[in-house]
Design brief:
heterodimer, A: 229 residues, mainly alpha, MetI-like fold, B: mainly alpha, 9 helices, transport (chain B), MetI-like (chain B), transmembrane helix (chain B)
């Protein structure tokens, strides 16, 4: 227990020392790199996952294909993929982005698909009976009702991406993982724990942002405590 | 990578086949034991969370926070307490499975229809007997869905354990990077994917055999 408190103190010292907040090796720069990798991959993953999820959920066709692709993507070891693409294609940010997109698509895709498919058929029929076109049914009925699940998928994807982007540092790229990998190499424990602490805080911020987002964008009729978090 | 080199050298795979099999065994053990331990923790915890709803949100938040710690960092934190051993890889992986398993156990228990519960009580089942003989079996498909996700991600995460020297097939990934030689990296990555997919397929089969009345049921996380 004492050891644990010491660690917290160490991290506190590390985070507050002014040296960490300057230059290419400082927290702000590493954080910016980390957010760039994570942000770009999330945008791509959202485009892919949302498009296919809505398409398959709405038409009801290709459910099996979606499940198989999502499973396949989940089985890809991110660590192996990053190192592989770096070895074959050379050092650049592309391998990291490819691996992170592959990581983030499955939760977004599956949750969008399940959300849309889970809309009560009676509700859908009622919307059609009111004269809505297919697009209107999708945008005015299915998406709003699926929104809690879609947001859950996005949140899971975002947290996974933020936590996994640390792997980028291993083959020599930037991001917050640098602190962890460098600390490991130099046997500098403080650096490892400090770097991890920043990543964890980032993940917690992401979690809070999505919780807040759900309160704002989900229709009041669907707000309940009933929606599982 | 050197330009004149082919992407895959099949002779290398041929030469190392026995060694690869050994590392595959280690990898499987490191990936699947945490899921087993995770179940041993999640099932009782899930039952408690289902019974006393107020424990559920804090438990889930705690599991989610653990899940958001990068594996790289969590391994390092445990090195201090457990040294460079397999335990140092398995403890963090066990903790990761909780964020998938606990919600699925709770959802599975919640999916038991109220009349079924009442019928069991009316037949004179005690609470414990009702949970064990009625509610848990009905929850199995949903729990297995969680086990699938946990097993697949656990198997692909084991590789990262190579950074503390305990990564099973991850050994070939770091080796390949050091030698600038893609064959071992490709072999290991493909093998890890295959392990994950085969495990997933076996779990689907297990779910069908365990709960023949609930074909294809079970929510994906």
């Amino acid at each position: 227990m004492n050891d644990f408190l010491n660690q917290i103190e160490l991290v506190g010292d590390w985070l507050t020392s002014s040296q960490q907040w300057r230059g290419d090796d400082g927290i702000p720069n590493r954080l910016a790199e980390h957010l760039t990798y994570s942000g770009i991959s999330l945008v791509f993953a959202t485009l892919i996952g949302l498009t296919f999820g809505l398409l398959v959920g709405h038409t009801g066709r290709g459910a099996f294909a979606v499940a198989s692709v999502a499973n396949l993507a989940r089985a890809i070891p991110t660590f192996g993929l990053v190192v592989l693409v770096v070895t074959v294609a050379g050092l650049s940010t592309t391998p990291v982005l490819v691996a992170l997109v592959a990581l983030a698509v499955p939760p977004i895709l599956i949750n969008t698909f399940e959300g849309v498919r889970g809309v009560d058929p009676d509700t859908r029929d009622a919307a059609r009976g009111m004269g809505m076109t297919g697009w209107e049914v999708l945008l005015k009925v299915e998406v709003p009702m699926a929104l809690p699940l879609i947001l859950l998928g996005l949140r899971v994807a975002a947290i996974q991406v933020v936590a996994t982007a640390t792997v980028a540092a291993y083959p020599g790229l930037g991001g917050l993982g640098r602190f962890i990998v460098d600390g490991l190499a130099r046997n500098n424990y403080e650096l490892v724990i400090g770097g991890s602490a920043v990543v964890v805080m980032l993940a917690l911020v992401v979690q809070a942002v999505f919780t807040a987002l759900r309160r704002v964008v989900v229709s009041p009729g669907l707000q309940p405590s009933a929606t599982k978090s | 990578m050197r330009d004149d080199e082919p992407l895959i050298r099949w002779d290398w795979i041929g030469d190392h086949i026995g060694e690869l099999a050994d590392y595959t065994g280690v990898h499987l053990r490191l990936g699947l034991l945490p899921v087993l331990f995770g179940l041993l923790i999640s099932v009782p915890l899930g039952i408690l969370c289902h019974r006393w709803r107020w424990i559920y949100p804090p438990t889930l938040t705690a599991a989610n926070v653990l899940y958001s710690i990068p594996s790289l960092a969590l391994f390092m934190i445990f090195v201090r307490y457990t040294g460079l051993t397999e335990r140092t890889v398995m403890i963090p992986l066990t903790l990761y499975t909780l964020s998938v398993l606990i919600p699925n156990v709770v959802d599975g228990l919640a999916s038991v229809p109220e009349p079924v519960r009442q019928a069991a009580t009316a037949m004179g089942f005690s609470t414990v007997r009702r949970v064990v003989q009625v509610e848990l079996p009905i929850a199995v498909p949903v729990v297995v869905a969680g086990v699938r996700v946990a097993a697949v991600s656990s198997i692909s995460l084991v590789a990262v354990g190579q950074l503390i020297g305990q990564g099973g097939l991850g050994y070939y990934i770091t080796r390949g990077l050091q030698l600038d030689f893609p064959t071992p990296i490709i072999t290991a990555t493909v093998l890890i994917m295959l392990l994950a997919l085969v495990t997933d397929a076996l779990l689907v089969l297990a779910q069908r055999l365990l709960t023949p009345w609930a074909r294809g049921k079970g929510a994906t996380a």
